[in-house]
UniProtKB/TrEMBL annotation:
Organism phylogeny: Eukaryota, Metazoa, Spiralia, Lophotrochozoa, Annelida
Domain of life: Eukaryota
InterPro entries: ENaC, ENaC_CS
Official protein name in the record: Amiloride-sensitive sodium channel
Native species: Ridgeia piscesae (Tubeworm)
Primary location recorded for the protein, binned into one broad class: membrane
Pfam families per the UniProt record, alphabetical: ASC
PROSITE patterns referenced in this protein's UniProt entry, alphabetically: ASC
GO molecular function: ligand-gated sodium channel activity
One Gene Ontology CC term in the entry: plasma membrane
């Protein structure tokens, strides 16, 4: 028996909602979400009263979502470009006084140059009072180098073309070649010593101790350089005082060893006192490098030349840089670098690039270029300018042909010499971008100094300028007898001529304000989240609370699907006649006594006992009974499903 129960709808939207509610539990979960969500647009689609309205709101929602994703893509693209901003400000704070490194342009001391000149003249070298074991060892190494190199190049020109051989010979006899063949320790002995170079020192308007205030640094080109460290005097290394009187003032004696070859009739060019590269050829005077404290100076690449007979004043202004790391910027947070002589310095960009070039030469040519500080892991490779130790049989000067092994070794040395030059040309000329493969970046935090340079001539000896000459007198009095003899040979008793070999250097803080440059992220994750949140609210009306509503929606759907799967695996319960009798006898009322079920044969009929309430739906006693009840009193909807019982 089938009967249609009267339906009453408020409007078309309610009819559609009612039809959806007759669906499964998942559908009802989504309907409840649409009724309660704070997301705009979705409830409009579900509650639309007509198809055009539903299409209209669907198009609006799709367009709003499209605009949101487009704007979000722009924001993400901006974020992943990692922009940065630079902030510059002038700060008044104590300025860290820079380190000052000085090198004599004439790298050999007067005494050592004189001994070498005597040795080259063929005169027996006798020991003097100034000699010690190190000096004797240097002279022996220098003599061995001269004998071996002269024989080597006689044979070398027989295998290698003359022009190419001559270029290689000039490189071997240069300063760098001399250092490579006699060793750093021996070259340091031959270099200008601190007491022979620095005549007087004043810092912060007071005399400074030359022995403790200067640290010796070996440079392959200048041999001995000396670095003034302000931390040896100032506890913090910083000062608020500006002006020449509160800076560093040095008197330097730049006595030229090169004068020995022009002050007499001997015209032999002393090995190690010329340079094959004109760009590196040095004049008279001194080389000065003003650099950050605890960093390694590079005299051939940085600094200023001081001419003898002049007073040079260098005013410095400090700038402090704070760079941002990746991904917004490129800076290196390496704190220190160490060379093969266990010297530790702060990281600098030029040091990193030099180390990279050195490693490229080592890997390509199998040698170490000694113009660059040795890497700590050079694995005992020879210097590029170092002559190979060949068998004595290769140096036979008779008419017999050279052995094939000797020829191969000479050609290998020629390739090594050319290889070093080719690597330099490739990096600096043919492919300037090759240096970028080194991945060297400026330090993340450093202090740099901008210098202004001025000079004037030293005053002549007058009553007003006796201070210079009193300093010179004191310096000359402390010289050893051998050095005094050499000076007399060069200058006689002419004080003005000797004074012409002096130079004064003043380094001071020109401005006690620091220019501070700080890099920071211009668009960080906080701004990205804020902007995307603004786009969500602008286009689709979603907030953080809405996101949690969506999370709860998925949780409800997942919970329903899990429960449904669990019930599907259970065995259905069997109803008994007693259960049915209990249901019939008690007039079982699943709708709170509004609908009664009674047995009529093998079918069941219903009786509605409350006509004041609306019941709508259909009954089909052949299959199942489906009722949906709406009570105006409590505004609730109920659903009951009764399966047909046939197994009685």
């Amino acid at each position: 028996m089938s009967r249609v129960v009267r339906r009453r709808y408020v409007d078309a939207g309610e009819r559609r909602r009612a039809s959806l509610q007759e669906g499964g539990a998942v559908t009802r979960v989504f309907l409840e979400f649409a009724d309660s969500t704070s997301m705009h647009g979705v409830p409009r689609i579900i509650n639309a009263r007509s198809l055009p309205a539903r299409v209209f709101w669907s198009v609006i929602c799709v367009g709003a979502f499209g605009m949101f994703f487009w704007q979000s893509g722009i924001l993400l693209d901006k974020y992943f470009s990692y922009p940065k901003k630079v902030n510059m400000e002038v700060v008044q704070q104590p300025v860290q006084f820079p380190s000052v490194s000085i090198c004599n342009s004439d790298h050999l001391s007067l005494v050592m140059a004189n001994r070498l000149e005597t040795l080259l003249k063929g005169v027996n070298v006798t020991h003097s009072d100034d000699d010690n074991d190190n000096v004797t060892q240097f002279l022996r190494k220098f003599d061995d180098f001269l004998l071996y190199s002269s024989t080597f190049f006689q044979v070398y020109t027989e295998v290698i073309p003359l022009e190419r051989s001559f270029d290689h010979m000039l490189e071997v006899y240069s300063r760098l070649g001399l250092t490579a063949n006699i060793g750093y320790d021996a070259a340091s002995v031959a270099g200008v010593q601190r007491d022979d170079f620095i005549v007087n020192c004043r810092f912060m308007d007071d005399n400074c101790n030359i022995a403790t205030s200067f640290r010796k640094l070996f440079d392959p080109y200048y041999f001995n350089c000396f670095t003034f460290s302000p931390a040896s005097i100032l506890q913090s290394g910083a000062s608020r005082l500006q002006g020449v009187e509160y800076g560093l003032s040095l008197m330097l004696f730049t006595g030229s060893a090169g004068h020995l070859s022009t002050s007499n009739e001997f015209n032999y060019l002393i090995p190690g006192m010329q340079e094959s590269d004109p760009a590196l050829a040095s004049g008279q005077g001194a080389r000065v490098v003003v650099h950050s404290p605890d960093t390694r100076p590079h005299p051939t690449a940085e600094g200023y030349d001081i001419l003898p007979g002049y007073s040079v004043t260098v005013g410095v202004r400090a700038s402090e840089n704070a760079r941002i790391k990746r991904p917004h910027g490129n800076c290196s947070d390496h704190s220190t670098q160490t060379d093969s002589r266990n010297n530790t310095y702060k990281y600098t960009l030029i040091s990193c690039q030099n180390q990279c070039i050195q490693k490229k030469i080592m890997a390509t040519c199998g040698c170490v270029d000694n113009r660059i500080p040795d890497p700590i892991d050079f694995n005992g490779l020879p210097y590029c300018f170092q002559l190979p130790k060949m068998s004595a049989s290769c140096f036979s000067l008779d008419e017999t042909p050279l052995e094939s092994a000797c020829v191969a070794e000479l050609r290998a040395y020629a390739r090594m010499m050319d290889c070093r030059k080719e690597v330099y040309e490739m990096i600096t000329i043919r492919d300037p971008h090759a240096i970028q493969t080194c991945n060297c970046f400026p330090p993340c935090n450093d202090v740099v100094y901008d210098a202004s340079y001025s000079l004037s001539t030293l005053p002549e000896r007058t009553d007003e300028h006796t201070a210079f000459y009193s300093i010179l007198d004191k310096f000359l009095d402390n010289l050893s007898p051998a050095k005094k003899v050499l000076l007399r040979r060069m200058h006689g008793d002419n004080y003005e001529h000797v004074m012409g070999q002096m130079a004064r250097l003043n380094v001071y803080i020109a401005d006690n304000n620091i220019i501070k440059t700080t890099e920071s992220a211009d668009y960080d994750a906080t701004r990205l989240v804020s902007d995307i949140g603004g786009q969500l609210g602008l286009w689709i009306g979603i907030s953080v609370m809405t996101l949690f509503e969506v999370i709860q929606l998925f949780a409800d759907v997942l919970r329903y699907l899990t429960a449904k799967g669990r019930k599907a695996g259970e065995r259905p319960s069997q109803r008994t006649a007693a259960d049915l009798a209990t249901c019939t006898n008690k007039n079982y009322d699943p709708f709170n006594s509004y609908t009664q079920y009674t047995r009529n044969g093998d079918r069941y009929t219903t009786t509605n006992t409350n006509t004041s309430n609306d019941v709508y739906g259909e009954q089909n006693a052949d299959d199942r009974y489906m009722y949906q009840y709406a009570s105006p009193a409590n505004n609730r909807r109920m659903r009951y499903e009764l399966d047909k019982l046939t197994a009685l």
